[in-house]
Amino acid sequence: MQKEDSHLDPARKDSTSCSHKNLVRERGHIICKDCGLILSEDITILKDNFPYSSELENRQRIYEYRIKKLDKAALQDPIIKLKYDKIKKLGKWYKDSRTSFARQKSEIDLLKGYNIQIDSVQFESIKRKYLSYLKNFKKPFQNMILIFFAIIWDEIKDSTNIRIERYIEICNEIGHKINKKMLNRALIKVATIKVKKKKDIDNVLKSIKKEKKQLKLELEKKLKEQIKFLFNREINRIPYNLVSYYIESEEKFENMKIQMQLLAYKVLKLIPYNFINSINIKAFTAGFIYYIAQISPYKKIFTQKIIANEEVSDFSATTIRKQFNYIKKFLGEPTVILL
Residue 338: phi, psi to the nearest 5? Predict the structure, then answer.
C-alpha cells in the first residue's frame, strides 16, 4: 500500500479501519483522503453523492458505468440484443474514406443473388462514388446505407431489366427498410457526387470506357462460343433417317453439317454483342440454324419441321420462326450463299 504525504489530512485513519468514503481523484488514481490509500481506477462504488474533485468527471464516470450496464443487458435480453446488433451493424457504415469496402461488397453480393447483374466496371464505379460521397459530402448521422443503395441504382438503372419497385422490394428483403420516396431523395444527393479536377474526370472517363470495351469484347467472345457449341450440338442431333429421302449417303449428310457449321461461324461474326446479350441462347440457336439453312444450298434439307423435331430441338416451330424473324431484323432476308 502507498500513501501520499503532502495533500492528505494530518489526522489520517488507519487504512484497515477506514470506510473510504472521502475520495478524491489525482494523477489518474482514486485516493482516500482520510487514510491515503490509493484505490484502483476500476472501482465499482459509483454513487451520485460521491464528492469527486470535479462534478464533470463524476458525471462521466456514471455515464460510462450506465453504458457498460446497458451493454451487459443487451447480451442477456434477446429483444434489446436485437436492437443493439442493429446499432452495431449501422456503425460499420460510418467509416472514413479509407474504408476497405468489405461490408458494402457483401451487400452487393446479396443483390447479385436476386439476379441483379453488377459487373466489375460497375462495381468499381459504385465504390468510387461511395467513397467520394463519404469523404466530401457526408453529414453527421446521415444514413449511408440509403446513400449506398441509391448509388447502386443510379449505376445499374440503364442496364437492368428490373424495375425500381422490385429493386426496393429486394433491398427490404435483405434487411434494409427503404421506400421509393426515400430512394428518390437519396438519388438527388447522389447526383452531387463529382470529381473535383477536370483532369481527374477525363482520366476516370477514359479508364471506364477502356474497361467497358474490354469487358464487352470478353462477354461477346464467351457468348458466341456458347452459340457455336449449341449450334454444333443441335445440328448433329439431326438423324440421317429424317433426310435420307433427299441425300444419297450418310457421309454426304455429315459433310453438309460441316459446311453449315463453317457458314454459321462466318455469319456469327457479323452479329453485334448488343443484339444477343439479352436473349435466350438456346432458342436463338434453334432459329439461327434455320436462318443458316435458308442462306445455304441445303434449305430443302434443314427445314423448320426437321429442326423442330423432338429428337433435335426442345423448341416448337413457332419459337423457331419467332427467332428466325428476330435475326432477319439485323441480317435481313436470307440470300443463298454458294459454299
Answer: -75, 125
The domain in which residue 314 lies consists of: 218-331
pTM here?
Answer: 0.40
Q: What band does 15 get if pLDDT is binned at 50, 70 and 90?
A: low
Rounded to an integer, what distance in angstroms lies between the CA atom of residue 307 and that of residue 322? 14
Rounded Cα distance between 233 and 223, Å, is 16
Amino acid at 32: C
In a domain, 269, yes or no: yes
**Tens digits of residue pLDDT in 156-173:** 888 888 888 889 998 888
Note whether residue 103 is domain-resident: yes
Length of the chain, please? Answer: 339
Tens of pLDDT along 114-164?
Answer: 888 888 888 888 888 887 777 776 665 567 788 888 889 988 888 888 888
Distance from C-alpha of 36 to C-alpha of 227, rounded to nearest angstrom: 88
Residues 6+ apart with CB under 8 A from 277: 219, 223
Distances (CA, A) of 27 to 10, 31, 55, 60, 190: 21, 10, 17, 17, 50
